[in-house]
Amino acid sequence: MTLIKSISGIRGTIGGQAGDNLTPFDAVKFAAAYGAWIKQQRNKDNYSVVVGRDARISGKMIQNLVMNTLVAQGIHVIDLELSTTPTVEIAVPMEHADGGIVLTASHNPKQWNALKLLNEKGEFLNAAEGAKILEIAEGGNIDFSDVDNLGKITKNRAYIDLHIIEVLDLSLVTVKAIEEARFKVVVDGVNSTGGIAIPLLLERLGVDVVKLYCEPTGHFPHNPEPLKEHLADLSKKVVEEHADFGIVVDPDVDRLAFVDENGEMFGEEYTLVACADYVLSRTPGNTVSNMSSTRALKDITEAYGGTYEASAVGEVNVVNLMKKNNVVIGGEGNGGIIYPESHYGRDALVGVALFLSLLADKKMRVSALRKSYPNYFMSKKKIELTHNLNVDGILEAIANRYQDENVSTIDGVKIDFPENWVHLRKSNTEPIIRVYTEAKSQTEANTLADKFIGEIGEIAKSL
């Protein structure tokens, strides 16, 4: 059982001992720290926070604890109930709220939940802000309101619809062309809120929708991370239904992956590549993704005359670099699309609309579209952490061993070889070391990953 405190929020497993897991005590503790931080930001009479959740089994329990903690601090809560992470993100500025909390553990299995914390712009907190909240939580010096000054909870179930309207109004979303293309699409909503939002968006675009696991029960029918090995049912359904393609999202709908008409993975890394191809063809400019994302985005960007740059892993890091470079589109290779015209957050609804606009424009099958892009293959492996594993020492030793190569230590260790790369880093969201590689073939990518896993084991024994 685990509790992880990072710039990505407070994430942990349900049950167990307080302080070691995401128990009710911990949910209240960190919600109160966030509420105290919110009140430190501005001196005003009224404060409000938007709160929404994915469909996890523990979601309603955790949400009630969080909301009533804020109420006890005199903070008004706009309760979106079942929602998506990007929906909460757009709701915060629309409500002129002081911040937002999303109760979701993204792609983690059902025993996990988390508090994702947003600022008044509906964007993730930066490292300094996250550190301040942790400091407040550990200090325990938090004031609560008297009985005459408690906050109130207001329910608002309209925001998924408002989010869809916002997506349909984006300048590059060609609603009429999509309607005329008469697409048929299978949607795997992993029994969470993507099963609500994505079909509604598609229906507004005139798409024939086949639903698969779209009941928001929180009982995930497969591992909720949208990777090839978890999507056999979606691939089978696409072929059976003679659909144009399949869509899968993670439980909070900020990651997006596609399956082509043959049931083959388009590749979650190529979600951003395809959306960037479309956006750059209309609005040339620069792009950003994180260091663990495919080189194909760099290739596509430079083909359009733009500049590509990589950030440290973490949405807030990607967003900060996007703002600095004034990019037209960015995101993460895990299927996260960040389109500034909409908002600075990963958004599967925006990704779906841009991808459909691209297909309607190119009038080609999804398999042919994938073949039109530079072909790279990734291996994504991990090493479970143990208490005696000196991660920092291991990464430092790897960097020293390969110091004559193109090495970056901005986020863990990334080594760019001429024909491939490897990125080793400690996860922000799980107790693991991530080992990502990319090469010109799957065999080469897997071999490279296994080589570095072996080197990590060898170094660990010597430390």
Automatic annotation (TrEMBL):
**Record Gene3D superfamilies:** Alpha-D-Glucose-1,6-Bisphosphate, subunit A, domain 3 (3.40.120.10), Alpha-D-phosphohexomutase, C-terminal domain (3.30.310.50)
Q: What is its EC number?
A: 5.4.2.10
Q: What's a single GO MF annotation on this record?
A: magnesium ion binding
Question: A GO term (biological process) for this protein?
Answer: peptidoglycan biosynthetic process
**What EC class does the entry list?**
isomerase
Question: Where is each Alpha-D-phosphohexomutase alpha/beta/alpha domain found?
Answer: 8-138, 175-263, 270-375
Which Pfam families does the annotation name? PGM_PMM_I (PF02878), PGM_PMM_II (PF02879), PGM_PMM_III (PF02880), PGM_PMM_IV (PF00408)
Keywords in alphabetical order: Isomerase, Magnesium, Metal-binding, Phosphoprotein
Q: What cofactors are annotated for this protein?
A: Mg(2+)
Q: GO CC terms for this protein?
A: cytosol
Domain Alpha-D-phosphohexomutase C-terminal positions? 395-453
Concerning PANTHER family, the annotation shows:
PHOSPHOGLUCOMUTASE (ALPHA-D-GLUCOSE-1,6-BISPHOSPHATE-DEPENDENT) (PTHR42946:SF1), PHOSPHOHEXOSE MUTASE (PTHR42946)
Q: Which family does it belong to?
A: Belongs to the phosphohexose mutase family.
Task: Check the record and name the NCBIfam families matching this protein.
Answer: Arch_GlmM
In Swiss-Prot or TrEMBL terms, this protein is called: Phosphoglucosamine mutase
Name the gene behind this protein: glmM
